Structures are given as structure tokens and as C-alpha cells.
Amino acid sequence: MRIIPNEMESLWTLFTAPVVWALHFLICYVSVAVYCAKSSQISFGFDVVRLGVVLVTIMALALIAMSGLLAWRQWGFGTHDPPHDDPTRHDRELFQGFATLLLSGLSFVAVIYVAMPLLFIAECSP
Amino acid sequence: MSGFSQVVRGQAVERPPYPRSPLRYGFIPILMFAHGCAGIQSTLEPTGAEARQIATLFWVMVIGGSVVWLAVIGTLLYAARWKGEPHSAQSAGRLILWGGAIFPAVVLMALLAYALWLMPSLRPQSGEPPSAPLRIEVTGEQFWWRVSYRSKNHEASIASANEIRLPLGQRVEFVLKSSDVIHSFWIPSLGGKMDMIPGRTNRLSLLATKVGIFRGPCAEYCGTSHTLMAFYAMVMDPAAFDIWLEAQSQPSEELASDGKLRFISNGCGSCHTVHGTEATGTLGPDLTHLGSRESLAAGILPNTEEAIRRFIADPDVIKPGSKMPAFRMLPEDDLQAIASYLKGLK
Amino acid sequence: MTQFADRMTRKEAKAQEERLRKVWADPSGWRYWTSVNNYQIGLWYAATAFAFMLFAGVLALMVRVQLAVPDNDFLSADLFNQAFTLHGTVMMFLFAVPIFEAVAIFLLPPMLGARELPFPRLSAFGFWSFLLGGIFVCGSIFFNAAPSSGWFMYPPLATDKEFSGIGADIWLLGLSFIEIASIAAAVELIVGILKCRAPGMRINMMPLFAWYLLVVAGMILFAFPPLIAGDILFELERMFDWPFFNPERGGDPILWQHLFWIFGHPEVYIIFLPAIALMAMIVPTFSQRPVVGYSWIVLAAVGTGFLSFGLWVHHMFTTGLPQISLAFFSAASEAVAIPTGVQIFVFIATMLAGRVIFSVPMLFGAGGLAIFVMGGLTGVMVALAPFDWQAHDTYFVVAHLHYVLIGGMLFPVIAGLYYYYPLINARMLSDRAGKLAFWLMFIGFNVAFFPMHLSGLRGMPRRVFTYPPEVGWDWLNLISTIGAFILASGILVIVVDVLRPKHREPEGESNPWNAGTLEWISEPKENWGVRSIPIIESRYPLWDQPNLMRDINKGRFYLPDAEEGRREGLVTSVLDAQPIQVLRVAGTAYVPIISAFFLGGAFVALTFHWWIATIVSAVGAFAAIVYWLWTGTAELPEKPQKHIGLGVTLPLYVSGPSSTGWWAMFITMIGDGTAFASLIFGYFFYWTIHEDFTAGSKGPGAQWPMIGFGLFAAAWIAMIYARRLNGRGFVLAMRACLMLAALLTICGSLAAVAGPLAYGMDPKSHVYPAIVWVLVLWTAVHAVLGLVMQVYCLARSLVGRLTAQHDVDLQNVVLYWHFLFVTALITFAVIGLFPRML
């Protein structure tokens, strides 16, 4: 069963994981900024926002993990070591897979970083 | 030809004793610099709760950073000088993975956790107005500070300018505003800075842990004489502070002088307030207790009669861009008498 | 592949070479300045940027002299403020960004095995705009009219005419003009890198320089537009009193800080990455082996590109935002250090796996790295909000940013200068002078900037024109000043080395460092880039493809000739670089210069509120650009296809997504959309800071915006039908559709402004009507541009330049309309529906 077609022909797949990071970052920032600016008009507490953002974080991590998995597959599950510099389409695909995997790794770590404040800071105070 | 060279620095201020930090010895170049004269405006000699925590964070980072720097540059030199058989691409690749990616990721995560853990405790909010024992409202103006104390012991707020006094060991909440452009309020010895932004009200809570006199500059560029906007912060014994605040809430003692008449007749009162007189202007700094302040003209002149006289005559030379008009056309007698009157307002 | 050339006689080959040389030759005499060739433009661009750097350096020395001793009066307060403002502004906008554009324009075509970038006249236009705007901004200080509010131009200091004079307008308008040129360069570079590589240069074969530049150009596309949006709001406030940053009428100075730093932080990486890209070319050459960790560099470049957009608030840690917000930005600022670390270790690993030849470029590279790593480490420190509360706006930050920019940018650029100089002049720069310059610069730099860490920690704020003697900063400042002059003397050595006459020295060999990448094939005396366009089979073709240089120079590859007397290059596919088209690029012309001068004139006149001159110049610029487009783009080839050698035949005309023009439009509109998104951000920003951000206004209602939206949607559909009908050959129906669409566009624009007009919304009264008007006007102005494009297509169709097969113009205009439709949809939904949802 295939969710995503085998062919990953586009340059854009390279950017999936960092785009997920960017969206996650935006959701964190915007939801907290709006909540803190409008807290007097909002009935629920800050913990609800925190919980919401934690859920978004889990989703983001799952998406990035999936992107990494697909990239790992494109890289031949790690069977072809770099440098991937033969003038063939196959090597170009291996390169894309490996680079995407690396970017997924970085994005994964960066999402965790960005979510860390939620563990430590529990209010809107300046 | 700014004329600032004419500005003479004020009397010697009492310097806080040199703090001993065991971490100081970790980093030799800084150590060399850090010795020598002490600062009344230094983040490295903290005399407040927040400043102390941040200084510790700093020294931890300096030591860690020095180690990392030496390691990276050492590896670089080794790689540049290595004359033997080149290393294999595999082992070089492993260096990228471990040295370039995994090591920084782990170390930075730990450092981030440290800072995040620190943040909420540095500036505990004292809650809504009634609960704070002492609030000081400071408004940035081009190029001076409007200060107003609100204490639970006093009904009305107590106006002052260009100087801040605070009691030892009590959390003080600063309410920070601006009337014109963005300024930034900062007492390096006590803690971090906070901007004063038109249309917004910021809060900053500081806890002083040592008696002494410290200096604070305006930390956000605010125009021509941004440089010439500073103040002195005096940390006092709580008892002495209470006595001082009580005195501030009263008008100054009247002195027999015709300076007061000349002060009023020349219209100074349309911009300045001296409590207990007809002078009730609010455009410029409150002068009720000017004579007792540490410095003049927002931390740039010594508080002497001569300096007062000069500032009245040439504010545009001493502080370019300041809103106070020059009074150099007044007769010398008037200038002298007004200066002497103001110096007498203790 | 040799049969092709072997079939030619010697004479034929000579004639072929002569034709090619003639086509690519520069005009002579004073017409030389009308050249659009990438080597000339790149060289002029770089020389101009260096000249501005020297100017800003002199300003820095003046600043240092003033601060050498306490209570100094070398400069007046006002002149000092002008000097530091201009120093920062010029270094950032007139040196650091343009120098990378210059290097890219110079190096990319030969590096990619292309003859030219796809839009040479656009490069020329960018250069002339840069030159004009730069002179305008720099010249102001000689009239005591330079901006003096800091390079960050915070309102209300910079918006209030009482506090800031014409300097603020000069900053805003002069730099907006240059920013537009930068975006044009970004478009050109992205299209060049994605579509104009030599056949066979798949994306895993691209030189790392190209990877970096691709990322940087993409970043410009998302970073500069927010600043342009901010500039628009700013100038509307200064010129027409629309209160975007005035808190008395609902505005907020913090919005500018957001928009400025959304630009300003990525800007640092826009400056840093191209310099590191030079290192990524230099290090493998002097290690004499391919880079170790090619994919890691791609990770680092792309990762940095993304993460750098999540850092902007770390310039605003002291503005009183909630701590939790600050913390997100602290986190992202720490994370960005990871890809930066990877880049550094890729270089170290490459050196370890090779045999290092230590030369002047390597010296500057390694010295820069040592400085940069220190700047990076202090960056990790100031990225933590608590430490930044102390360090912010002190000399600690001054030290940090100079360690980052001089170590991460200036030193690598000088390394690049020593490395690539033979490509400019066929001779080397002096080794001895280089070493002397390096040590002067390295020592001078550290003497100047290391003490600043300490003066900052001791509480010395930035941007002070003097300081009192007893605070403990005096001898630190004196040391810094001495260091600054040592640093300057090092730079002077380089200037002398570059400028000294070298025509007596013998010419060197063409690849003196034995580098592996393609740019070393180009010869300084030839303008054509490559004699023939090669097939690439390696990341380091000069190392791995034997006889490549000979075969190229004998014209044995593609397009060795210019039979039709036209400048030609190849367009290839994005991933695998399969040839798909012969692209005829534009040659020498006056029109880029004329357009740049008219447009520059419009900006200058606007600064001084010379309305008539502004209108005349703007109309002139418009006419020049339309003439340029009409005569220079989407031309009909005399034959459908052409043989390019090695038995390959390619079309001369393609349209739609495989054409370069379509990509350029797409990329431009991404940038345009980013500016629009910034304005929308402004709208919601005002919503968050006020209880009722409409201030009781009912405008612009829902009715007119919905009507406007309907009309825009109809116009958009008409455009799509026009394209479809044109493709089927129904010319008259297509023209009818275009006319209908034009009519609908006019009505839609009128409906757009009818909403706020009907409710009497006065943009001066409060920020709410002002931001609504800005959104409406943004859409209306884009609609007017859309209308011009419709009329243009109609005219092209009437004269027979737009036909069923030759539909580039219509394809690109419809693409523009997709974006315009989205803009209209968002504008009308936001202004019409959002206030009703509250």
C-alpha cells in the first residue's frame, strides 16, 4: 500500500521538513501572541493553549518523521553511501533522498527546540 | 563643536566593593580586562538579583564558549598542518556528523534549557497594583527621565526626575513609559533593560542586593543627545529610604533668597514645578528637591551652582536638541540668583 | 563527440570563432557603458560596492576617532549620528548585499557552463539602479542631510519630522529603489541556477556556490518584501500623515520593528551564506579533493535559510513582549547554530581528507573562520533572552556583529578576491602583499573589536557620541581606535595591490590554482564565457573529465557558433539539466540605463516632494520599460528550431512553465505576495493590540468588497478563457475576452475603492482606515498593472506578435492574474468580512 507515489521527482520534496518546521513555529508564535494580547477576552486558560501547541508539536514531529522515512527509502535505506556524484539519474535521486533525510533530522531537532519553552514558561508575563 | 567637551564629570561616587566570582578565573583574556577599575555601570559586578543570575549565566557561557572555540580552531589548525596520509572521507564525514551536528545540538539544547528555566524566576510579577509595595513610574523624554514614586505609605504619587532611589532587599516594580520616542531603561548593576515605548506601558521588576550608587544610561537610541541621557540609581537602607521618601513628599525648605522671585518672574514655572510655589509647569523636570540630587541634566553634569547656571544659560550647547530654551540673554545676576536658589532646594 | 568538430576545416573553425566573438563583444568607446555582459556588469557592480565599502569604512574611522578619548569633540553630536547611521546603512545595503550580487553575476554563468544569465539587461538595470541609489544615499552626508536615526530607523524618532529631517526620506526612498534592484537580481539568479545550467549538470552536480546562491536568492524573495511593505507604510506616514506608527491615533511603533527585523535577521544570513559559498569553492581547491559532505552543505544552506526566518524577535527582546514569545525566538536562534556548525565542520573535514596547500585565500579563509566562530559563540549567548536583556544595545553586540560580519563575510570575500582575481586580469595578486594585508587585518580587527565585548559588559551603550571618563571605558575605547586603524591599513594594502598597474607582468596560466570547477575555463580576454557549452559529468569537471578544456575551446560541444548573429545560451530542465530550448539573450542596449535613470529620478524627486518631476520621471520610466519589454522580450524567432551541435535540435521558442519568462514572473510574484502578506500581518497586528481596532468605524462594509471580489473573479476567469481560446486559435474570441477582462478589472478597482469612500474613511484619522486604504490601494495598483498587461497582450495580438503558438506574453500575464486573484480574494475577505466576525 502506498500513500505517496514512489516517484519523488520534485525539488520541492527537499523542503517538506523545513516547511513543517516553519508552520509549527508560526503556529506556536501566533497562537501565543494572540492569546496573550487578547487574554482578557478569552475564557480559557493558558494551559489550554499550551496543550494545543503540544499537540501541534506532536503532529509536526510525525510529519517530519514521515518525510524522513520517505527520504530514507529514496536513499535506498542507507545502502548507498555518499558522495552520490555519478552522472546518473539514480545518483541524483540518492542525493535528494540523503539531503532530504538530513534536513528532516535538522527540522526534527529544531521543532523540539521551539517547543521547549512550553515546558518552562507557563504565563504571558513580560 | 558639540560643546560636550565642556561637560565636566561630577564628584566621585562611592564605588561598590569588588565582587568575587570564582568563575572569573576561567577565561584569561577577559580576566586581564576585568581587573583594573571597577564600574558603576557594569554588568560584571552585579548588585541585583537579576544581574547576578545573568552574570553567572554569562560566565558559564564564556567558559563553555572558550572550550568550544579552542577545540574548533585546534581542529582547523590540525587539519591545515597535517602532512601525513590524508584521512579517509568516511572518518572525515563522521567528524561532520559528530562535531558539526550532534555535539552542538546536544550542548545547545542544554544551554537553552538552562536559560528557559531561568527566565520566569528573574522577573516575578508582583501582580496587580495594590499588592506592590513600591512602584516607580519612569517616563522617558528627550533627553531626561520623569520619575514618580507610588508607595503604599503615601496617598499621592511623589514626583522627581533624573534620579532613582530604591530600598535594599525589596522588590520594586518599575512602570515604564515614553512621551515622545523610544527610550530604554537600564541599570546594568541591577538587571536587564526594558524599552520605553510610546503608547505602551512596560513593567520591570528589580531587586537590589547591595547599598550603593549606580549609573543607568538610556539604552535605545533616541535622537541627537541620546548619549546625554543617563541617571543615577541609589540603593538605600529601607529605613533611610522611607525617611527620604517622606521628605520628598514635602516641599523643600524655604530659603531666604530673591532667586525664587527671579525664577518665577522669568517664567521658569511654566515648564518646571517647585512644590509649594507658583511654579507648576510639567513640560520639564520637577525641581522641588533639585539641590539634593546626585547629578544635573540627566546624569551629565555635577550638581553645583556653577553647572546649574551654565545649563540655564546654554542648554542647547550642553545638550543639543534639548527642548529647554537657552536663557543666555538673562542678566548674570538673574542666572546666578536662580542657580543659587535651585541649588538650595534640598 | 569529436566527429562534429573534425568535419570542419581549420578555416571554418576560425570563422566560427570569429562570429561568436563578434556577437559577444562589448561596444567600444563611451558606448562601452551600455554593455550588458555579465563580466562587465559583475565587475562594475563589485567595484562600486567596494568603493561604497571604503566610504563607509572612512565613516567608521571617524566614529572611532571621536570615541578614542572621553569627552571628545572631533565630531558634533549630529554629525556623529549621521556617520554611524550611514556606516551601518552603507555597509549593509550598498556593500554586503550588492557585493554578493556582483560576484554571482560575474561567476555564475561560467560556473554553470552558461554563456550569460537569462536576463542580462535586468542585471544592467540592477547595477545602474544600485549606482544611482547609492550615490544619492551616500552623497547626502556632504549636504549635512544624511539620515541620522540609525540604520534601523525606528519610529517615532524617524517618522516624526520634528526629530528627523529629509535624511529619513533619503534613506527610505533611496534604499527602496535599491531593494527593488536586489529583488530583480534574486529573480535572475534563481532562474539562472534552475534553468540555465550546462547539460548534464544535475542538481547533485551543481557547484556548491550555486546551491548557496539559490538559497540566498530565495531568502531575498521572502526577506526584502516585508521591508518594502514597511517602507510603504513609513513613507505614507511621513508624507501624508497616515498614522501607522503613531500611538495617538491607534498606530504602534512596534509594527515597524517586526517588519524591519523580519527583513533584518535573514539579511545577516543573506550576507553570510554567499561568503561561505566562496569558501566552499576555495577549500576543495586548496585541499585538492572534492568537498566531503556535499549533501551536508545543502542541508546547512537550506536549513539556515529556513531557520533564519524564525529569529527576528531576538532583536526585540527588550520591548516587553511576553516571555513565552521571546522564548520561541531564543529557541530558534539556538537551533540556527546547528547548520552553521555543520558548514564549518564540512570545511575542516574536507581539509582533513585532502592535502592542504596553504595560500593567501586559505589564510583569509581560516582567519575569517577563527573570527566568525567567536562571533557565532557570542551569538549563541545573545540569543538567550536573559543575557540579551543585559547585552542588548551595548558594545557587546557591536563586537558580536562585527565578529560575525567581518569574520563571516569580509574575510571570505577578500579570500575570494585573491582566489578569483586571475579570472579578472589573468594575473595574480601579490602573495606578499596578501600576507601582509592578512596579518594587519587580522590583528587590527581583534585589537579593535575584542575590547568592545568588555566595554559593552561594562555598560557602554551603542550609538553614543561620547562618554564620561570615570565609567571604565576610556582605555578600552582607545585600544579599539588603534585597532581600527591597523585594520584599515590592511585594507589599504589590498586596495593598492588591486589597483597597482600589472600590464607589465606576464599573463599567468588559465587555471593557476588547479581548481576543479568550470568557471576556470573562462578567459579574461573573451566575453563569451565558454567557447562551446559542455556536457557535464562530474562535480569537478576539470579534474574528472579529461580533455574537457580542450574540447570546449575547440568548439566541440553545443552552440559553438553564432550563425544568426545572436547571443545564445541553453535552457535545461530543473533536476537533470536536459537541454530543452535555445535561449536568445539580449545584447547591448541603452534601455536599461534609461529606465534606471528615470526610475531613480522618480524616487529622488519624490524625496524632495517635487511632484511634477516625480510624475514626469515615473511616466518616463514606465514608457522606457514598456519599450524594453516590447522590443526585447518574447520575440518571434525566424525559424522554429535550430541545430546546436552533436546532432541535437532544440526549439527557439517555448512558453508556459518551461520558459524562463514564466519562472521569472512566478518568482517575482512570490516576492510580491510576501510584501502583501506583510501588509495583511499589519492589519491583524492592529487587531491584536486594540480592544476594538476599527475604532467604531463601520467601513468599508461588506457589500462593496464582495462586489469588488466578484468582478475580480470574473476578470480572472475571462483571462483564463482568453488563454484557452488563444491556444485553440480563436483569435477574435480571445481579444473579446481580453477586452471584457479589462473592463471587469476597471470596474473591480472602482468597487474596491468605493467601499472605504462610501463610509468616508479618512486615513489620517486613525490607523484602521489607513490600513484598510493601504490594502485596497495595493490591490487597485496591482489591478492597474494587470490592466496594462491586458492592453499589452491585446496590442501584441493586433500586431501579430501574440499567436496561438507564440503565447509567452499571455501565459505570463495569466500567471500574474492567478496571483492578482488571490490578492483580491484575501484583501476583500479581510477588509469586508473580518470586522464582521468579531
UniProtKB/TrEMBL annotation, chain A:
Keywords: Membrane, Transmembrane, Transmembrane helix
Chain ranges passing through the membrane: 12-36, 48-75, 95-122
Top-level division of the source organism's lineage: Bacteria
Protein name: Transmembrane protein
Organism from which the protein derives: Mesorhizobium zhangyense
Classification lineage: Bacteria, Pseudomonadati, Pseudomonadota, Alphaproteobacteria, Hyphomicrobiales
Automatic annotation (TrEMBL), chain C:
Residue span(s) of domain Cytochrome oxidase subunit I profile: 18-549
GO MF annotations, alphabetized: cytochrome-c oxidase activity; heme binding; metal ion binding; oxidoreductase activity
Domain of life, per lineage: Bacteria
Pathway: Energy metabolism; oxidative phosphorylation
UniProt xrefs under PROSITE patterns: COX1, COX1_CUB, COX3
Subcellular location as annotated: Cell membrane
Catalytic activity: 4 Fe(II)-[cytochrome c] + O2 + 8 H(+)(in) = 4 Fe(III)-[cytochrome c] + 2 H2O + 4 H(+)(out)
Pfam families linked: COX1
TM ranges: 41-63, 83-112, 124-146, 170-196, 208-234, 254-279, 291-312, 324-350, 362-387, 399-421, 433-455, 475-496, 582-604, 610-630, 662-686, 706-725, 737-759, 771-794, 815-834
Principal EC category: translocase
Membrane topology: Multi-pass membrane protein
Main location: membrane
Domain called Heme-copper oxidase subunit III family profile: residue spans: 679-836
Example of a GO cellular component annotation carried by this entry: plasma membrane
SUPFAM superfamilies tied to this protein: Cytochrome c oxidase subunit I-like, Cytochrome c oxidase subunit III-like
GO biological process: electron transport coupled proton transport; oxidative phosphorylation; respiratory electron transport chain
InterPro entries: Cyt_c_oxase-like_su1_dom, Cyt_c_oxase-like_su1_sf, Cyt_C_Oxase_1, Cyt_c_Oxase_su1_BS, Cyt_c_oxidase-like_su3, Cyt_c_oxidase_su1_bac, Cyt_c_oxidase_su3-like_sf, Cyt_c_oxidase_su3_a-hlx
Keywords, in A-Z order: Cell membrane, Copper, Electron transport, Heme, Iron, Membrane, Metal-binding, Oxidoreductase, Respiratory chain, Translocase, Transmembrane, Transmembrane helix, Transport
This enzyme's EC code(s): 7.1.1.9
Family to which the UniProt record says this protein belongs: Belongs to the heme-copper respiratory oxidase family.
Record-linked PANTHER family: CYTOCHROME BO(3) UBIQUINOL OXIDASE SUBUNIT 1, CYTOCHROME C OXIDASE SUBUNIT 1
Name this protein carries in UniProt: cytochrome-c oxidase
